[in-house]
UniProtKB/TrEMBL annotation:
Gene3D superfamilies: Chloramphenicol acetyltransferase-like domain
Recorded superkingdom: Bacteria
Pfam families listed in its UniProt record: 2-oxoacid_dh (PF00198)
Name of the protein in its database record: Pyruvate/2-oxoglutarate dehydrogenase complex, dihydrolipoamide acyltransferase component
Organism of origin: Desulfitobacterium dehalogenans (strain ATCC 51507 / DSM 9161 / JW/IU-DC1)
Amino acid sequence: MGRSDGRLLKSLSPFVRIIPHIMTRRSDAQNFYKQVVVVDKIDQYIKEKKAQGIELNYLHLFIGVYVRVLAQRPQLNRFVMNNRIYARHDILISMAIKRYLKDEGEETTVKFFFTGLESIEEIVEIVDRTIKESCAAGTVNDVDTIARGIMSLPNGLVKLLVGTLKEMDRLNLLPRKIIEASPFHTSLFFTYLKSINLDFIYHHLYDFGTTGIFVALGKVKKLPVVEGEQVVVKKCCEIGYALDERICDGLYYSNSFKLVKKYLTNPYLLDERLEKVEEDVH
């Protein structure tokens, strides 16, 4: 049976197809990577956009970069389910948010839906609208509704129901509505630690769902950077990645990170619209 969120890749090499049978869980296949980015050009770009009346910040820009890279590097948008590798249909980014920034502030999740062809202005609109809808007073989104419904049951039934949902997901029987609501069924999970003035972390991947990439953006701080033959101090941000090594090989990841850095060191490239989203040809 097919899945609502992805297409089974049938022409991969036997070596690639056997890897999910060897590393059966996402937590078995985690690799970690750190990226350091000088933010001078990012700050300049954000300042210029604000002068144009576009309220752009780091959250919008980084999401815009990852949407662009996912559109150009389709193997990053794969996932593993039931020991098989799928190409995801859509570009999705999830993140956890607090409805207000206090210890007792209620936490929820949001999921942004993209085509990959959005302008940076459209990225801003999608992100802001989605967060606003989830943070409005008295708002209960689909994730909250599902979680509250499950947790209204006795603990034994909760364990049984969650186990049943996991098995349905494994057998491609999980309803589309749950997959669309679930923050764990996404191309990339993003945590915006800069917003709470925290350094980057390496966040684990979830065995539930299909997320193969977790990105944690830390606060801006001064770091020594090599420029030519000199070491200079620059404002930088550090990014921690957790990656499912089963979805693509190391060279593909390496070239993808180079593309991320290309956009982050020259964000003006985001002003050039993509004409098409690359397809996973396998």
